[in-house]
Structure formats: C-alpha cells, structure tokens
C-alpha cells in the first residue's frame, strides 16, 4: 500500500496526473502494481486524506491538487480539529487517570500495550490504539471524557492508520504508550500529563512531516 501510495502521490506532484484528471480504476491500478483492489483502495484513501484527490461515487477518483493540504481530513474531522480537542481533553485526562485509575484500569492498559507490541496487522493495531485512548479516558473517572473520545474514535483511527502507513509511527507509538501507562501507574499526575503531551506532540510532528516533508521543527530535530 505504501509503495502504491508513494508512486501515485509522486505522479500527481510531478504533474503526470494533472488537476481534473481521473485516475485509473481500482482494477487497472491493481493490475499495474500487481496488488489487490483493497490495497489500491487504501492507497486512494491516503491520497484523499492528503487532499490530492476526491472520490466521486460511480465516477471514480479525480485529482484536485498538485500538493497535499496542510490540514488533511479524516472522515468527519480535520487534523486540526483532532489536535485541538486532543490537547484540551486527552492531556488533562491522563492526569486524572493517574490519580483515579483502578487496578482493573491498569491491568487493561498493560494488556493493550502488550498486544500492540505483538500485533503485526495494521488494522488490528489501529483498533487497539483507539481502545487504548478510550480506556485512559474511562480511567479518568469522568464518563464525559469517554464520550468525547468515542465521538472522534473513527477519525482517530483513520489518522492513526494514515500515520502508520506514511510515517511509520507504530514502533514509536508503542514506546510512547508504554511511557504513558508507566506514568499513570506511578500515580503522578504531572508525569502522566507530560507523557501524553509528548505523545501528542510526536503525532502532530509526524503528520506535519508527511504533509510538508521539507518542514523541520525543533521537535523533529530532537527526535
């Protein structure tokens, strides 16, 4: 999928598929790259998330831009929507979870990070990732937080899959998730807030790097 997406993105950015042109059909692309239609479909979703194409039901996929948008959309919400909400919700939530979590919450979080370390299927990993963040929200002891994360769950999953496919985020995310769990288990509100803040900053930096490869931040340099 990554290879198909990279090839199509490069072709669009080089002008081989100009704005307004229809891309080859899923079956044609599948034959060209010798992959299944499901792989092609995922690659096309990636192009759409980048703002390079639009899919028209019954007509196909059309090029809409020669470069990615700075604020890609994941389902109902944009990346900016998600980051703003996550900063104001998930960071304090991690702090609450550190002081309110139960033994069952810690057991579930520990189980989830272990499964994510071992998981090789991207779709399954993304599902576990969503459950991980929902579990932290539930561990805060405030059911409203859980409802908020549930509301953006689909968009978070789409963004997570996008970052894994284009930014190779899984290994780093697994490490960051373990750091969050360790901080929550320690009972330190400050440490949990710091760990979640670091995680979200790395996620945002990864997305920025994908959308604007030449863009470099101080955080990227530190990485």
Give a written overview of the molecule.
With 223 residues, the chain is mainly α. The protein folds into two domains: 1-63, Orthogonal Bundle (Arc Repressor Mutant, subunit A); 73-211, Four Helix Bundle (Hemerythrin (Met), subunit A), CATH 1.20.120. 71% of the residues lie in helices and 5% in strands. The chain contains eleven helices and four strands; from the N terminus they run αααββββαααααααα. The protein is elongated and about 55 Å long. The model is unreliable at 215-223 (pLDDT under 50). InterPro entries: GntR_C, TF_FadR/GntR_C, Tscrpt_reg_HTH_GntR, WH-like_DNA-bd_sf, WH_DNA-bd_sf.
Record the SSE blueprint.
Blueprint: H1 2-13, H2 26-33, H3 37-49, E1 53-56, E2 60-63, E3 73-74, E4 77-78, H4 79-100, H5 103-118, H6 122-139, H7 143-151, H8 153-167, H9 170-186, H10 189-211, H11 218-222
Antiparallel strand pairs: 1-2, 3-4
Helix pairs in contact: 1-3, 2-3, 4-6, 4-9, 4-10, 5-6, 5-9, 6-7, 6-8, 9-10
Number of domains: 2
Strand order, main sheet: write it out.
Answer: 1-2
The H/E string reads HHHEEEEHHHHHHHH
Count every beta strand, where a strand is a DSSP E run of 2 or more residues.
4
Strand content: 5-15%
Task: Please give the CATH architecture of the largest domain.
Answer: Up-down Bundle
The CATH top-level class label of the largest domain: Mainly Alpha
Number of helices: 11
Shape: elongated
> Which structural class do the helices and strands define?
mainly alpha
Helix content: over 70%
